[in-house]
Specification:
This protein is an alpha+beta fold and 226 residues long. The chain is 42% helix and 25% strand. It contains eight helices and twelve strands. A hairpin with a 2-residue loop joins β11 and β12. α1 packs across α2, α3 crosses α4 and α6 crosses α7. The longest helix has 27 residues.
Length: 226
């Protein structure tokens, strides 16, 4: 069942230390939006006016190079926040966000959130502490990825998608992933052929089951692979 806006914000890492009263103050700033498949939420380079939270659906964030080629940065599902730079910079949107499934988003305008932080120092302190911890975690992940071989990079990407948007069920983690191997390759600095080869090997090993956009990931077997 789709979560309410307040329930969604309760699960956002940025707000995990807030009390119920503090969380309601944040929720009072939120607006709900429906998005259709293919609809753009914002475009790279536009003035950053709001931060978004996904109640339902999938959003891809991508950048376009000088030759017009699209490079996917991330695919985000229910419970995720974007852009990841959040509320704390005045820079434009760093990429383009587009719905790849119909969905429902919550948005909070950056200027309204700034006012809340000024008026509520305790919320500011809690949010900044969480941001500091997330930066340290991201640095550690980037350092690990730089040391991974090709197989480990694909496994790490699968883990990322499973952790971020997978639904855990008795037969494994169910995952909708409507992107190509070429797009995955762009995300982890590999060739499409290498990702395709490793992906097929993981299927033969029983780590992945499914076809096209819908997969079941067996995290216990993935742990042995890693």
């Amino acid at each position: 069942m789709e979560k309410s806006g307040l329930e969604l914000l309760q699960e956002i890492i940025l707000f995990k230390d807030l009390t119920d009263e503090e969380l309601r103050k944040v929720h009072n700033l939120a607006s709900e939006h429906k998005v259709a498949k293919g609809e753009f939420v914002f475009m790279e380079g536009e003035e950053r006016e709001a931060v978004y939270f996904i109640r339902r659906g999938l959003i891809k964030v991508f950048k376009v190079d000088e030759e017009g080629r699209e490079h996917i940065v991330n695919v985000l599902g229910a419970g995720q926040m974007f852009p990841h730079i959040g509320f704390f910079q005045d820079t434009p949107y760093p990429g383009t966000a587009q719905a790849i499934q119909p969905g429902t988003l919550l948005s909070i305008r950056c200027n309204q959130f700034d006012v809340l932080l000024v008026e509520s120092p305790e919320i500011t302190r809690k949010v900044m502490r969480v941001m500091g911890n997330r930066i340290l975690q991201l640095q550690a992940k980037l350092q690990e990825l730089a040391l991974f071989d090709s197989r480990e990079r694909v496994v790490a990407l699968i883990r990322h998608f499973a952790d971020e948007q997978g639904q855990r069920k008795p037969d494994g983690t169910h995952l909708v992933l409507p992107i190509t191997h070429g797009e995955m390759a762009q995300m982890i600095g590999m060739t499409r052929e290498s990702v395709n080869r490793i992906w097929n090997q993981l299927r033969r090993d029983g780590v992945l089951e499914g076809d096209k956009d819908t997969w079941v990931v067996h995290l216990d077997r993935l742990g042995r692979e890693a």
